[in-house]
Amino acid sequence: MSQNAQWASKIGFILASAGSAIGIGAIWKLPYVAGTSGGGAFFLLFILFTAVIGLPLLMGEFVLGRHTQKEAIRAYQAVAPNSGWSITGYIGVITCFILLSFYSVVGGWIIQYVVSSMTGQLFHVTDYAAHFEKTIANPYVAVGSQLLFMLITILVVSRGIQNGIEAANKYLMPGLFVLFIAIIFRSLTLPHAMEGVSFFLKPDFSKLTSRSILDAMGQSFFSLSVGVSVMLTYSSYLTKEQNLPKSAVSISIMNISISLLAGLAIFPAVFSMGFKPEAGPGLLFIVLPSIFSQLPFGVVFQVLFLALFLFATLTSAFSMLEIIVAALAKGEQTKRKKISWSAGLIIFLVGIPAALSFGVLGDVKIAGKIIFDAEDFLVSNILMPLGALLISIFVPLKMKKEVLIQEFSYGSSNVKRWFALWLLALRYIAPILIIIVFLDVLNII
Question: How many Cβ atoms sit within 10 Å of the Cβ of residue 10?
Fold first, then answer.
């Protein structure tokens, strides 16, 4: 393998990048927040903010990654040597390390539920809330399933870009869409399903508050995996033939579409069975199993739905481990397998306290939060917005304008007219809005 690995195809890059962006949060969080914050009105805001924040940031990472052909840390060093800007890359690597350490815990829960669904065990549960609490509190189940999730992630990433990440996403991402269509079809055929569709999509501007507007703003860049240099690393494996603006738009549209499909799959079933749509995270492990247990062929659709969540979780995990492996390998692909296993197993070990924070370590608190929630707060509310802010400043400030135009224009002759708009959004609009979100999550405004 060459020193700098490359994607085998354009579609492989797009599917892998979309897979990185489409995780658990994009599937359950955005539909839930939209449903309780104005429905279609919230979605319109989310699309707007994606265009003026998420998309410019995504393009910023793309042009930096492809131009330097280097991973997160060395990319900043190549553009701004002998400066402190490489801290942005380090923030991305550290963020992904912490994120994957507790994200793998949730992935382990999903694996456990997939297995118990396939064996029929989950269908014999009478109290799903109590069952979920018991499952995640069991130290052997929590740590064992977390380890299994990390082993799957390590196996794929250790095989490289083409044979590992790209090959896996070529199956997982189309599978994700197919499963969604099957589940949506079943949900829409349930009694009173249209009430759920109306709850999710009907614009209600009276429900829009300053809180929901800020949520839409924050979700617009969190949902695209920007701010942690994952997309920078993925784009470093691109050739000059790839049309970056077209790829960025395609990924953004896929991400919005998945959230839309998730809402159409979840809320018709929730309303049909008379459950509260405000369940949030509990939808996945408590409400939905309760719904499927009452449906004809429910066990089949429950397995499909959990498999869908597992696919989405894995594709995101691949990208998190990849940025760490790429940073440590420094372009030497012969070291990939060893580094993948070493880094992956260390991440698993570091994640054990988070896995145990719902049971034996439940009394251990950091700033009043259990270990899992404290790590989640650190990543979501501090490190990710900080990384996004630094990227929005670095690219227009430190990269030469002619280089930006060149990277923006490769692969197409019709995108130069959009360059000025992109640079305007990245240089001025995105930083201001990110700072507003940052101050909000820190309760400063």
Answer: 17
pLDDT above 60 (res 342): yes
In percent, the amount of the chain with pLDDT more than 70 equals 93
* Those residues with Cβ within 8 angstroms of residue 21's Cβ, 6 or more apart along the chain or in another chain: 223, 224, 225, 251, 254, 255, 316
Tokens 């979920």 sit at which residue? Answer: 132
Contact yes or no for 34/49 (Cβ under 8 A): no
- pLDDT of 131-144, one tens digit each? 999 999 999 999 99
3-state percent breakdown (helix, strand, coil) of the chain, nearest 5 = 80, 0, 20
| Residue located via tokens 């640079």 | 423
Q: Looking up tokens 């929730």, which residue turns up?
A: 270
For residue 379, CA distances in Å to 205, 266, 346 come to: 31, 27, 18
Please state which CATH class domain 10-441 belongs to.
mainly alpha
What is the amino acid identity at position 164? G
Question: Is 245:418 a contact under the CB 8 Å cutoff?
Answer: yes
Q: Residues 6 or more apart from 191 whose CB is under 8 A from it?
A: 272
Token pair 């570091």 is at which residue? 350
Q: What is the distance of C-alpha 320 from the center of its chain?
A: 9
340 and 157 in contact (C-beta within 8 Å)? Answer: yes
Which helix (DSSP H) or strand (DSSP E) does residue 369 occupy? strand 369-370
Residue length, the chain?
445
pLDDT band at 335 (very low <50, low <70, confident <90, very high): confident
Read off the amino acid at residue 309: F
Task: State the pTM of this model.
Answer: 0.88
Token pair, residue 102, equals 């507790």
Q: What is the domain partition of the chain in residue ranges?
A: 10-441
What is the arithmetic mean of pLDDT over 285-299? 78
Contacts of 107 (CB under 8 A, 6+ apart): 146, 149, 153, 310, 313, 314, 317
Quick check: 217 and 49 in contact, CB under 8 A?
A: yes
> How many angstroms separate the Cα of 428 from the Cα of each of 198, 204, 231, 394, 420?
36, 30, 21, 12, 12
